[in-house]
Structures are given as C-alpha cells and as structure tokens.
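Working notes for the structural subgroup meeting. M.R. asked for a predicted model of this chain before we commit to crystallization trials. I am recording the input and output together here so anyone reviewing the notebook later can reproduce the run.

Input as submitted:
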Amino acid sequence: MKVRKFVLEDLKRVYEIENMSFNQSYEINIFKQLYEMGVGFLVAEKDNYVIGYIIFWIKNDREGHIISIAVDKNYRRLGVGSKLLSRAINVLSLLEIDKVMLEVNENNNSAVEFYKSFKFRIDRIVPNYYENQDGAIVMYLPTDW
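Returned structure, recorded in token form:
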C-alpha cells in the first residue's frame, strides 16, 4: 500500500468510498472544489486501486483541520486509515501549526477511539451538527512540534 497525492482521475473512486462510508456524504463537486483550492488531499492505494483518502487544510494560518477521512469497507482495520492520518499529521507538523482539529459523529465510537489512539482529545460536543440532527464531537490534537 502506498500513499500519494490525489489526482482528478481518483475523483470517482474517492466519491464511491465517501458514499459507502457516510450516511451523509459530500457531493462529488465538493471534492473537485477542495482539490482546486489546493487543500491537502491524499489517497491510499493498493495495486493501483484507491482504497482510502484523507482531506485536510489549514484554517486561520495556524490550525490544521481534518475535513474527511474514509477507507473502503473491504480494507478497514488493516492500517490504511492510520497511515493516511499519520501522513496528514506529518505534513501539518512540518508547517508548525498550533493544533489539529476534526469533527466526528457522536455515534461513531470506533472513530472516536481511532482518533484517541493518535492522542486526539475531546474538546466539546456540538448538538445537531449534521443534517440528520446528530451531534458532532469536536476533537483536537495538541501539538508540541
């Protein structure tokens, strides 16, 4: 498995992974717009087949933000998400940002535990964050790089 930069040819496959991973997914044009904005956009691939992705950016010059991360359901729990998140954190650390933030559905316990394994901490809960009225757990990674 290797991690590389997203290219537009990956768009359809990333969108498929997004749809299989989330009840409320981004529209395909959002991924294209994010790419065109120059955000961090990485994919994991195995045998030239995209199996996961992560999108991240820098807000307010000093805050990293994980926008989305997802792995094909057939490749979960094999370290793909960990490799993607590690790479994104590494890129953000090179930019010496102050902290890394993300939001996760309050009902997604496995994702919360995944982020905690990377030393993310719970900051707060935002009620009714998602369209279906689920709340979001806002998590942050304190930085000391």
